[in-house]
Amino acid sequence: MSRSRVVVVGAGFAGYQTAKGLSKAARGRHEVVLVNPTDYFLYLPLLPQVAAGILEPRRVTVSLTGTLPGVRLVLGEAHHVDLANRRVRYTDPEDRPGELGYDALVLSVGSVNRLLPVPGVARHAHGFRGLPEALYLRDHIVRQLELAAQSEDEAERRARATFVVVGAGYTGTEVAALGQLFARSVAARSADGQRGVRPRWLLLDIAPRVLPELDERLSRTADRVLRRRGVEVRPHTSVKEATPDGVLLDNGDFVATRSLIWCVGVRPDPLVEDLDLPTEKGRLIVDEYLNVPDHPEVFACGDAAAVPDLTRPGEYTPMTAQHAVRQGRVAARNLRAHLDGGDRVAYRHHDKGFAVDLGGVQAAANPWHVPIAGPLAGAVTRGYHLAAMPGNRVRTATDWLLDAVLPRQAVQLGMVRSGSVPLGTASPELARTPPDHTRGEEHS
């Protein structure tokens, strides 16, 4: 008898958990194929620590083939799904086309950077969604501070030492908090009399406060920590235009900078739009069992799916890793029920709290909705990450220990250049904006 083939598209939090659940229960009865551009699962919450030189890049990556026994990995990026003929078309890392047939499909393609129609952003800003962006930002911070120390022009020195982060959600807040500490340590070691530079960090958001999705007490804690360190927190503020020399804010202020870090949020992967199925704000509509309506063989979960929130009737679950992990587990169970028979389970989840790393021993967390701050929150946050990571726990804990007792290495690795991490496009207007080839790498 031929085995049924299950194709899982995407190895983010949802896809990884789906593949893991299938690898344990479907071994021998079904062929499980995982399509993903890389051979690793990326633990996104710790990317800011990679950019800040706290963790080595490999600490936030987990081998797919090493941790998913019985799952066949196909390296490639899916670009089309033929629902009628049950085919997935993809392109491999060498730009060769490929195609896979399936008996059951799980769409867990995740999300990409969300852009706004702001002139110059697609050309001059850098996002923060993957390992290349984190490595690039680490080098970029070091490079700008070194070039600032070399410059004879005071205005240029100030501009190179200024870093603007747009978006005060989880990612933007952590990037600003950890980046400011990293930049300050780099500048302190490279200071040479008048050549010393003082890094300046700005955190902008149109919301009235940082971390608007969290409890106000946690928001105030994060705001207080950031301001005490010298980060300029500017609520009710957005970027009106980005230029090679800086950013124009909507209040008329112009901030001279070579560093615009875009953390305004995410949108579902464009593959979802290509399906020509009902969506909710770009996310594929599914039922409470994570099934795509009228396609019992197709499931969707994670950021790509609009999953009904049974704890809040009429709403959908937010695009968070916490939901994606649990949706992946439910998708695996319901897919096994679809193939082998059995009862399905509806996705229902109550948030157990959140944690935001603010660098050093500082954090803001509300485990089980009990707000805490300071060193205790820092310990809880790192403990949570160690428990949630599917691998590399000992190595990650070792890096944290070494960072506490040794100075960070502040040298450019030169592994990722600016052109390798485009922010991407979100609209036809932005898509018509050509890439900027006029600025040298030292200005990017």
Outline the structure in words.
The strands form eight sheets. The protein has a six-stranded mixed β-sheet with strand order 5-2-1-9-22-21, covered by helices on one side. The chain has a four-stranded parallel β-sheet with strand order 13-12-11-17. Strands 6-7-8 form a three-stranded antiparallel β-sheet, with no helix packed on it. The chain has helices at residues 13-25, 47-51, 64-67, 121-124, 131-150, 154-160, 170-190, 216-229, 271-274, 321-340, 374-388, 393-405, 428-431, and strands at residues 4-9, 30-36, 40-42, 61-63, 71-75, 77-82, 87-91, 97-101, 104-107, 111-113, 162-166, 200-204, 232-234, 239-243, 246-249, 254-256, 260-262, 266-268, 279-280, 283-285, 291-292, 295-300, 305-306, 355-357, 363-365, 372-373. Residues 425-444 have low confidence and may be disordered. Strand 21 and strand 22 (295-300) form a beta hairpin. The termini are far apart. The protein has 444 residues and is of the alpha/beta class.
